[in-house]
Amino acid sequence: MTEEITGKKQQRMDAGTIEAAEKALSSEARISFHRRLLPFLGPAFIAAVAYIDPGNFATNIQGGAKFGYTLIWVIVASNLMAMLLQVLSAKLGIATGLNLAELCRDRFSRPVVWGMWVIMEIVAIATDLAEFVGAAVGLFLLFHIPLIWAGFTTAAITFLVLGLQRYGFRPFEAVISVMIGLVAISYLIEIFLIKPDPVPILRALVRPRFAGSESVLLAAGILGATVMPHVIFLHSALTQGRITVKDPVRQKMLFRFEIADVVIAMTIAGAVNACMLIMAAATFHAQQLHEVGTIEEAYRTLTPILGHAAGDIFAISLIAAGLSSSAVGTMSGQVIMQGFIHFRIPLWVRRTVTVLPALIVIASGLDPTATLVLSQVVLSFGLPFAVIPLVLFTANRKVMGELANRPFTTVAAGTAAVLIVILNIYLLYDTIFGGN
After folding, report:
1. pTM of the complete model beyond 0.90
2. Where in the sequence is the domain holding 221, given as residue range(s)?
3. Choice between 409 and 241, residue whose per-residue pLDDT is larger
4. Which CATH number do you get for residue 52?
5. Which residues contact 226 (CB under 8 A, 6 or more apart)?
């Protein structure tokens, strides 16, 4: 009975958006493009949250503090690859009515499916742990409350955010979009306070290079923090039944609107990541503070350099990023479990299970930034298991129909997949054997 009532609430909240979307897809629609676009905005913003999570804070701060603007081109390149992959994921859901995990279950052997599920569950849990810890650290820095109580506060807020889904997809999308906007505005203010010289930034963008093996390792970490495997699975689930279209002509039109959604959301996420590195380069690297490698050090160092407000703005952006990405990480885990093994547990149960490891990490006194960086290594390991199936399925006309990739798209996506795999093998090798 409760599920029936919840379903009716969702239908009421989503009906207006679905009606507006169907009108926009009508060939007789006589409304401007931006008004036609509005009903389709949302799925990519949910996915984009994962691209500005606390793991990005950790890697971008380290990259900027140690190497200045040198690695800003890595952020741009990673964001372009992420944009391509999220477009393909959205297209997969539109064309097939299935998400990536469901297609893997239908088309791969049972041992492969179970192996992929275990790997992606580990990835989802590691991601959620990092994002939860990041939000707790932000609350600790801003309000100076004990870290363990900041953890419980984070848990309570994420439960509330996830609870919005019972009212439909629009309220949840709206709250997540507001949080992304808060992070973006915070970094616009930071850049205004810093006033960085644009010349070295542009020079670093047009002259891609590394500064030794450590910078290559950090570049792989930036890539791992930018291209996120769990939201590749999630994005296909967000589009698979949101606006259902069977006609190939209207599917292509819907796909064009989803491309716009991805471009807008991912451009914002990429700009935020670039601003993170610019902030660290213009403050820490410029002051010869190359070893500012933790989020807490960044907060404490920003205050004397730029003033107390800069530190607080940094903490607010970290809280917004952590809370939103933690909620999205829990959603991703649910999609992965349901898709691979056709089993579903209540969202609050999954949230509780993923909260416990994070609270244990906080209570044990482990370094939060080290936990975040380690989570990026786990993410790196999981990336090929999301990227390779995505490229294979979207290139297959039997799977995708009229929305199958063009040859150029497949080559570009395949090249990105190979590059991601190579860089992540290097990252894993250096992490395991680099100290020996």
Report:
1. no
2. 2-25+39-433
3. 409
4. 1.20.1740.10
5. 51, 56, 75, 78, 79, 81, 82, 273
